[in-house]
Amino acid sequence: MTTNELFAKLHEAAANPKAQMDKYLAQGKKIVLCAPVYTPDELIHSMGFVPMGAWGADTELRRAKEYCPAFLCSIVQSALELGINGAYDGASAIVIPSLCDTLKTMGENWKYAVPSIPFIPMTYPQNRKPAYGVAFTKAGYERVIRDLEKLGGKFDDAKLAQSNALYNRHNAAMRKLDEVLAKHPEVTAQQRSDAFKSAFFMTKEELNAALEAQTPAAEKTPILLSGILTDAPGFNAILDDLDLHIVADDVAAQSRQYRTDVPAGDDALTALAQKFADMDNCSVLYNAAKPRVQWIVDTAKARNAKGVLVALTKFCDPEEFDYVMIKKACEAAGIPVTVVEIDRQMVQFEQARTNIETFRDMLTM
Predict the structure, then answer these.
(1) pLDDT of 211 strictly over 60
(2) Burial of 358 from C-beta contacts in 10 A (0-12 / 13-18 / 19+)
(3) Percent of the chain at pLDDT above 90?
(4) Which residues of 222-241 are buried (b: 16+ CB within 10 A; e: fewer)?
(5) Sheet (strand 119-122) strand order
(6) I need a surface site. Which of 29, 45, 54, 71 has the fewest CB within 10 A?
(7) How far apart are CA 132 and CA 134, in angstroms?
(8) Are the CB atoms for 6 and 202 separated by under 8 Å?
(9) pLDDT band at 214 (very low <50, low <70, confident <90, very high)
């Protein structure tokens, strides 16, 4: 498969997840939707289901407004809108984690707004690293197991171990892709987004087989991109028009998903719970020390990024709180930083373009 063929395949999956979903349903597979940010995909996969991301879409909000106040994150609202409008019809269930206040309300709203698709809660502990936090997470997974068993799934520790290993291989492939893309500025921001976004809608077996190394390079301005979700074509077009090259990302829907592997262990479910305990450097994962801030600075330096661009999802409190510290740390390290606010309902990106163009000009002076 050539590079162009690979990216065309990934773009097709990223741009039309409904087609992917219909394909799997036609094959007799059962779909379990996975809301952001961290769901136990390995567990869902091991029980015979296909985990598929439910991160919403760039769509007008109508029915979701009946359940959500205007100031809720547009990612959650748009996912609810799609559910109400039937975009997820055919799915066996949706798993919604409890990692922010908005996600906590999403599950209760989903039960009434989309009763045809059962809601499965995944309750995570705030203090996830101590032994009692791991035990709490494991108990949450056991709740998910019981709900998936009602849908015809069967839990087997050996099968979970196999899924853990498969997802670890996939994580390694995506980390390698991140490293390769850092060296190839001819790959556009949209292509990079497609590569990561498609992973939410393709089975890991299919995607692992498709990933290949890329080829020659071009001159662009290297930046680190941070945020929750940066898949809007209008936003990525600005980065490409301005010749900005994402050499590293701190995006929840991109590289953050693949930083942590399931550790080795005799008990696969406990090992999966330990994976969540080991996760860090994310705005929705509690850590009073906020190591994410230094991670951004260190990674920007390691990848020779000339600046840090923060794409702030509107009304995302965890990201807003972190930005103040990110800005101070980057400025102290001599790394230029700027922020643009985006959401799922944006149609015009001219204000963001002006901000990013000014930022680009400052980096290339």
Answers:
(1) no
(2) exposed
(3) 71
(4) bbbbbbbbbbbeebbebbbe
(5) 49-53, 30-34, 93-97, 119-122
(6) 71
(7) 5
(8) no
(9) very low
